[in-house]
Write a sequence for this structure.
C-alpha cells in the first residue's frame, strides 16, 4: 500500500538528487542533527518525570545558570556529530571556545554552530524551547578546522534550521531550496514532512518584543514599535502582541502566521542580546528562504561579517513588509533628528 508520509530522510535524499555533484555528506549531517533532536526531545518529554529539571549547579560561558537539559542537549549534539567525519569544528552557545573534533576521529568539510537549548529558562515552566543550528562549508585549508571556519557571514551558510520542542516536536530547515517543516511522530521515532515549502505572509498579524525594555530603546525603535501597535494614523495596521520569550517559539509562530520579532539593542544590551552566529544568522537564512527578511534594524543580518564566536546583534526578523517598515521608521527618525531626508526600503 502506498503511504502518503515522507520521512525527513526520504525528503533530504530527494532534495540531494537534484544536485549531481552532491556527495550525500550534507544529507548525512542533517540526519545526524535529526537524531540529536530526537534524543533531546525524548529527554525533554521525560524531564518532569526523572527529575532532571532545575539547574546543573554551575554557570555557562554566558554567566547563566546551566539547566541540566542544557548540558544534556549540548553533549548530545556534540556526541552525534563529532565522530562522523563530516564535521571539522563546532561552536556552541554553551562552550566558550570552538569545539575541535577529537583527534581519534577524522574531520570533514562542514562547520556546525548551534544553540543547543534556546529559551532554557522556560524549561521549568514547561514552555516551548528549541535547538538552533547553522552549517557552513569549511574554509581553512590546513589542520583539522579552526575558528575561521565558523566566523563566516550568514550568506555563506549551506544549511540552517531549528527544532521546536513544543506541543509537538518540529524540525524546520533550509538548504537554500525553500523552508520545510517536519513533525516528530514519537510512536515511530520519525520526523515526517508536515509543512513543505513554508512561505511567510508579506505582512504579519503579530509583533513580538519584550516591551518591558521600551524605555531602554532609542527613539527610532520606540517609534517603530508604536507603529506596529497602530500608533501612526497613516502607517501600519495595529498588530496583535505575542511574546513567549523563546526565540524559536516566537519565530516559528511568525514564520507560519506572519509577524515580526524584534530584539533591539538597548541601553543595557548595547549590541543587542541575541547571538549572531547561532541564533540570528540561521534564523535569518530561514526567514529569507521563506520570503521574509532579517536585519539588525537597518542592515541585512546575512551580510554581517562576524569577528567573535559569541558576538551579539540586534535582531528584527519576519514578514518582509514589517521588517522594511521598522527599517524605514528608524531611518526616518534618525534623519529627522539630523535634518536629512530618507528613501523607503520597500
Ligand atoms: P528576554 C532566551 O533566553 C533568549 O535567548 C531567546 O530565546 C529569547 O527570544 C530571548 O532570550 C528572551 O529575552 O530578555 O525577553 O527574556
Amino acid at each position: 500500500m502506498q503511504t502518503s508520509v515522507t520521512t525527513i530522510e526520504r525528503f533530504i535524499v530527494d532534495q540531494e538528487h537534484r544536485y549531481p555533484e552532491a556527495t550525500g555528506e550534507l544529507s548525512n549531517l542533517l540526519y545526524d542533527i535529526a537524531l540529536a533532536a530526537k534524543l533531546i526531545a525524548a529527554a525533554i518529554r521525560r524531564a518532569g518525570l526523572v527529575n532532571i529539571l532545575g539547574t546543573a549547579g554551575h554557570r555557562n560561558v554566558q554567566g547563566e545558570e546551566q539547566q541540566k537539559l542544557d548540558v544534556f542537549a549540548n553533549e548530545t549534539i556534540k556526541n552525534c556529530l563529532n565522530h562522523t567525519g563530516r564535521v571539522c569544528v563546532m561552536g556552541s552557545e554553551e562552550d566558550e571556545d570552538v569545539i575541535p573534533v577529537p583527534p581519534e576521529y577524522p574531520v570533514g568539510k562542514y562547520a556546525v554552530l548551534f544553540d543547543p537549548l534556546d529559551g532554557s529558562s522556560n524549561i521549568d515552566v514547561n514552555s516551548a524551547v528549541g535547538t538552533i543550528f547553522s552549517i557552513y562549508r569549511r574554509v581553512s585549508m590546513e589542520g583539522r578546522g579552526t575558528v575561521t571556519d565558523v566566523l563566516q557571514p550568514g550568506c555563506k551558510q549551506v544549511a540552517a534550521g531549528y527544532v521546536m520542542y513544543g506541543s509537538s516536536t518540529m524540525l524546520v530547515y533550509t538548504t537554500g531550496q525553500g523552508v520545510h517543516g517536519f513533525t516528530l511522530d514519537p510512536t515511530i521515532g520519525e520526523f515526517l514532512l508536515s509543512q513543505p515549502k513554508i512561505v511567510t505572509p508579506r505582512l504579519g498579524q503579530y509583533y513580538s518584543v519584550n516591551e518591558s525594555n521600551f524605555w531602554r530603546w532609542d527613539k527610532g525603535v520606540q517609534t517603530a514599535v508604536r507603529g506596529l501597535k497602530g500608533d501612526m494614523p497613516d502607517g501600519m495596521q495595529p498588530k496583535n502582541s505575542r511574546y513567549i520569550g523563546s526565540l524559536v517559539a516566537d519565530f516559528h509562530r511568525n514564520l507560519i502566521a506572519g509577524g515580526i520579532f524584534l530584539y533591539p539593542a538597548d541601553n543595557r544590551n548595547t549590541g543587542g542580546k541575541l547571538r549572531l552566529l547561532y541564533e540570528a544568522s540561521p534564523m535569518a537564512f530561514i526567514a529569507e528562504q521563506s520570503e521574509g527578511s532579517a536585519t539588525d534594524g537597518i542592515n541585512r543580518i546575512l551580510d554581517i561579517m562576524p569577528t567573535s564566536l559569541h558576538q551579539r546583534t540586534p535582531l528584527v526578523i519576519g514578514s518582509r513588509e514589517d521588517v522594511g517598515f521598522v527599517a524605514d521608521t528608524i531611518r526616518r527618525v534618525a534623519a529627522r533628528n539630523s535634518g536629512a531626508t530618507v528613501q523607503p526600503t520597500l
Notes: The radius of gyration is 20 Å.
